[in-house]
Recover the amino acids of this structure.
């Protein structure tokens, strides 16, 4: 249940409650806001960062934010500890865990970030959300949720390539593709204005 801050990154223990991340003033603002939108305070006070990572919910804005902050998932197995990039972890969670448990996640804390979402109401789970971060070297990372089986990193120059949006009562496949493009454009413009 620890959060450790370093010069350019932070490590969040798997059992850290989401509300603790929301309240951590040293954490990047976009990460704190994404943790807040993960659910109501009753959920945030019992839900953990490790639980969010292990479930890999396709609509999780927190997972999208973790992706742009270069999250590395620490997994402890009988054979030892290993760090797995979150994007790799989310592609095949059972294989990534392989008899192990999540112990922590390490994320970068530098750079600037922005997030945009579309939902039925402000309190609802997003239909689609985009999170972008520009690091101190000018590299831009863009992640989307609600457009594939799990939140994904996408190419900022070709947002629609490689995504397979679901088609359900909350939004058609084409609507989600269009929203992915619109929200991506907005967050990238926001980075340019910061």
């Amino acid at each position: 249940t620890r959060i450790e801050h370093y010069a350019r990154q932070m490590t969040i223990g798997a059992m850290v409650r989401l509300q603790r991340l929301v309240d951590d003033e040293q954490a990047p603002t976009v990460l704190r806001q994404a943790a807040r939108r993960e659910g109501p305070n009753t959920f945030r006070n019992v839900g953990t960062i490790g639980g969010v990572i292990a479930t890999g919910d396709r609509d999780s804005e927190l997972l999208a934010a973790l992706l742009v902050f270069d999250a590395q998932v620490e997994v402890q197995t009988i054979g030892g500890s290993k760090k797995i990039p979150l994007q790799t972890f989310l592609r095949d969670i059972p294989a990534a865990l392989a008899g192990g448990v999540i112990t922590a996640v390490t994320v970068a804390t530098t750079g600037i970030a922005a997030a945009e979402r579309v939902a039925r109401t402000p309190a609802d789970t997003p239909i689609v959300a985009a999170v972008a971060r520009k690091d101190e070297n000018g590299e831009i990372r863009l992640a989307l949720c609600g457009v594939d089986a799990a939140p994904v990193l996408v190419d900022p120059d070709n947002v629609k390539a490689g995504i397979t949006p679901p088609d359900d009562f909350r939004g058609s496949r084409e609507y989600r593709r269009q929203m992915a493009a619109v929200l991506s454009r907005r967050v990238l413009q926001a980075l340019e204005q910061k």
About this structure: The two ends are 33 Å apart (CA to CA).
